[in-house]
Structure formats: structure tokens, C-alpha cells
């Protein structure tokens, strides 16, 4: 017997590694034979008291929608954004990125689309892809085309620039950055709704938007890291939250101390109609909707009241849709969403 008989094609695995090397730009990092290499000397000279920051995340069952719709070019951006948007909550600049790509059976064309998008997204985020792992795990997946994507990122920040929740105080303002869609969260529920209602990913449902449902769901997540890092440079950002699984409440609470509450005002930003369509199709309770989805806000920054207008003007100048969505009050460390 050969390894291929057990579901692992070594020739295709080698071809994919060479493809990724060709896609990846050369610079201060390189994909090594056993581990990635990153040159730190020049970077460290820019810092007085540098701290390395790391994060890992994946894109979950959004891959199933991509397989059914046969579109993979945005998944690499999703993977990078899931990680660097977490990193930047601590004011950290992304340095390098690694991936873990597990699949039942390697599809080179699909893989090329994924990794081309991943390399582009790393470039946009200001980091470099220095390595990863591709695993063919036929016995662990239900379907022959199943796959999973996970990413790992390392960044750097000056210790004095790391946001401290203790600095958040009543009167501070919440600035929300617009989301592009559900991003990578809630897709287990979304897929159940699609299955229950027998929805067609290639059909345009006017109650959800003006594009096919599959395109609305696969819209890549914005990479907020660049514009948020510029916010940290220009303003006194006291805290930040990447709105992913757990919704606004589950993520914003991490930026607070136990003497304040974050009060978020529904209606202060436009909620994409896709979320209301999903709610209607699946008869999803209102509180469940807010706990699962970002509801149109992908990132929230906490800034002093006196800087709020200037922050909004700056974000607009950067082409980033943003809204004043609430404020900090005295409290017990919770998030209150008010009508």
C-alpha cells in the first residue's frame, strides 16, 4: 500500500508548499525548512520596553458556506483579520503570521485561492506569512471536501501603550466601526436557518440585501488593524474590543474595569438587514441575536469625551464608517444595551 491509498497525497502537499513560497513576498522574514524565521533586530530598535503579543483564531464553519457556494478568495482575509483585529485591541502591531490548514483531501485550486487571499491580507495588515502546517486528515472529516483554517499571529507593542481597563472612566465615549457582515461568527446557527428554510445561496432575497445570499454571508471581514493603530498613535484610546463570538456585550466587557458600565444605544448605527432577515427566517429571539452576531459593529474603541468628534472625523477621512454608539457610566463592569 501507498500513503495515497490512505488518503494522503504527498506530491500535492509539496506542490502547495512551493505555491505558498511563490505567493509570499520576500523581506524581513522567510519560510524556513522546519520553522519560520523573522529578523527582530531592526524592529526592536524602535521600542524602549517592547512586549510581544500573540493571538490565535480560526474561521469556523464559514468554510461550509464557501464550499457550497464554491468561493474561497475571501477566506484568507477572514483568517488574518480574525487574528490581527484581536491583536490590535492591545495596541500591538502585527509582525508575522502562521497558518494551520487541515483538509480531508487536498484541492490545489481551492488552496491557491485561499492562500493568495491570505498573503494579500498579511500584506494589508503589515505582517508576513512565515510558515504553517498543511494536514491531510481524511479520517477526521465527514466529507471529502471538508477543511479547517486556523491562524496564529505575533505582534509587538510598547509596554506603556497597552490599554489599561483601569483608565476607563464615566464620560468616555464608545466609537463603533462598521462591520461588513456576520464576519466569522454565528455560522452554525446561520447554516441551521438555511437548512430549515431551504434557502438558496445563489438567490437574491430582497429582505436580506441586494446581492445573492452566499455573497452576503461570505463578505470578508475588514482588517481594522491599520486604522486602529493610527487611532492609538493620534488619540488617547483607553480600550478596544474586536466584536466576534459573544456579540457586543461578550467582547466589550473585556475592556472595562469593575467600577464602570458601557452603555450601548441601539439605533445609533444602521443594523444590516441581513441580520433581521436571519432573525425572521429562524425565528431567533432578540436577545439571542445580540449574543451571537456583531449586529453591524466589528470593532469598538473607548476614547475620552473631548476627543470623540475628532476620532470620528479621522476615521471618516480614512474611509472607515464609524459611529458614536454609547458612553461609559458608573457601574459594576457590565455592558448595557438600551433602545
Subunit organisation of the chains: single chain
Query: What fraction strand?
Result: 15-25%
Contiguous low-pLDDT stretches (5 residues minimum) are: none
Head-to-tail CA distance between termini: 65 Å
* Major sheet description: 6 strands, mixed
Q: Widest sheet: strand order?
A: 8-10-7-11-9-12
Radius of gyration: 21 Å
**Treating each run of at least 4 consecutive H or I residues as one helix, how many helices?**
12
3D shape: globular
Number of domains: 2
Structural class: alpha+beta
CATH topology of the largest domain: Phosphoribosyl-aminoimidazole Synthetase, Chain A, domain 2
Report the CATH superfamily of the largest domain. PurM-like C-terminal domain
Mean pLDDT: 94
Give the ordered list of helices and strands: HEEHEHHEHEEEHHHEHEHHEHEE
In short:
The protein is of the alpha+beta class and 339 residues long. It is 35% helix and 24% strand.
Walk me through the structure.
- This protein is an alpha+beta fold.
- It folds into 2 domains: 3-161, 60s Ribosomal Protein L30, Chain: A; 165-338, Alpha-Beta Complex (Phosphoribosyl-aminoimidazole Synthetase, Chain A, domain 2).
- The protein is 35% helix and 24% strand.
- It has 12 helices and 12 strands.
- The strands form 3 sheets. It has a 6-stranded mixed β-sheet with strand order 8-10-7-11-9-12.
Highlighted features:
alpha+beta; 339 residues; six-stranded mixed β-sheet; 60s Ribosomal Protein L30, Chain: A; Phosphoribosyl-aminoimidazole Synthetase, Chain A, domain 2; 2 domains
How are the SSEs placed, and which strands pair?
Layout: H1 10-23, E1 29-30, E2 37-38, H2 41-44, E3 50-58, H3 62-69, H4 75-87, E4 93-103, H5 108-125, E5 128-136, E6 147-158, E7 173-178, H6 187-197, H7 213-218, H8 225-234, E8 239-242, H9 247-252, E9 260-265, H10 273-282, H11 286-292, E10 297-303, H12 308-317, E11 322-330, E12 335-338
Parallel strand pairs: 4-5, 9-12
Antiparallel strand pairs: 1-2, 3-6, 4-6, 7-10, 7-11, 8-10, 9-11
Helix pairs in contact: 1-5, 4-5
